[in-house]
Task: structure prediction
Amino acid sequence: MCTTDQRTRVGRKYYPAATIQQFLDEIAKNHSIVEVCADPKFPGVTTIYRWLSTDPVFAAEYEKSVQLAAASQLQL
Result:
């Protein structure tokens, strides 16, 4: 994943940093990758899994979002 200014380049498409943050926010709300990626404004499932395996910064942010989702479930 290449970061240029506040946008993230994936192949030929750029994603604003805000879109990536929205994706992580949705994960933190306990939505699955498939559910979130069904919205065309977000990267596809394959792209997300590629980022998770190749981008340690994104993987760490994703893990934080998953932990937030789990913590919110424990509070119910």
